[in-house]
């Protein structure tokens, strides 16, 4: 009988480009859900992170095919949004019209804007990718509403302020 070598994490197969994109999309979706959950339940970031990584990652979302997530991106988005909430919220407030401050925005959209702002301010993805990804998240939560167009406009404003060199 021959011994089989143990599989080390660095030996695990790397996801393909398309698979990695899906994993990142899932992480953005999960980050919005996690930030929402933190706000409505008063749970801390560590408890919510652990719950998502242990119980939500791997969940099947049907047509969105988001069964796996990029753990690193998920952790970064929620940590950056929480650790820099004042800066994140200020960027969002400046992008909203005066009659609609962040506090008046639906809790789900507020979580979405916080995750997106965190990625725009501290992430490496191009702003147009961030906008497209989070508009898709808005469509998942509001498939029949006007919210995705609203999200697109607000994120465009935020991206132009956060990364003007990209435009």
Helix/strand structural class: mainly alpha
Most strands sheet: none
**Helix content bin:** 55-70%
* Annotation field: number of helices: 7
Shape: globular
Mean pLDDT: 87
Order of helices and strands: HHHHHHH
- As a percent range, the share of strand residues is under 5%
Please count the beta strands (DSSP E, at least 2 residues each).
Answer: 0
Task: Give the end-to-end Cα distance, rounded to a whole number of Å.
Answer: 62 Å
- The value of Rg in angstroms is 17 Å
Low-confidence stretches: 1-9
Function: Involved in transcription antitermination. Required for transcription of ribosomal RNA (rRNA) genes. Binds specifically to the boxA antiterminator sequence of the ribosomal RNA (rrn) operons.
Region (Disordered): 1-20
Keywords: RNA-binding, Transcription, Transcription antitermination, Transcription regulation
Domain NusB/RsmB/TIM44: 26-160
What attributes characterize this protein structure?
RNA binding; mainly alpha; NusB_fam; 167 residues; Transcription antitermination protein NusB
């Amino acid at each position: 009988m021959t011994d089989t070598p143990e599989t080390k994490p660095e030996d695990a197969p790397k996801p393909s480009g398309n698979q990695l994109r899906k994993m990142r999309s899932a992480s953005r979706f999960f980050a919005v859900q996690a930030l929402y959950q933190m706000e409505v339940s008063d749970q801390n970031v560590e408890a919510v992170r652990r719950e998502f990584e242990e119980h939500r990652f791997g969940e099947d979302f049907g047509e969105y095919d988001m069964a796996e997530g990029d753990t690193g991106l998920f952790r970064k988005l929620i940590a950056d949004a929480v650790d820099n909430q004042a800066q994140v919220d200020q960027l969002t407030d400046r992008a909203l019209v005066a009659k609609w401050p962040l506090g008046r925005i639906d809790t789900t959209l507020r979580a979405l804007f916080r995750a997106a702002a965190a990625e725009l301010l501290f992430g490496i993805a191009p702003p147009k990718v961030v906008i497209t990804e989070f508009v898709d998240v808005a469509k998942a939560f509001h498939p029949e509403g006007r919210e995705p167009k609203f999200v697109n406009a607000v994120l465009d404003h935020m991206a132009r302020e956060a990364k003007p060199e990209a435009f």
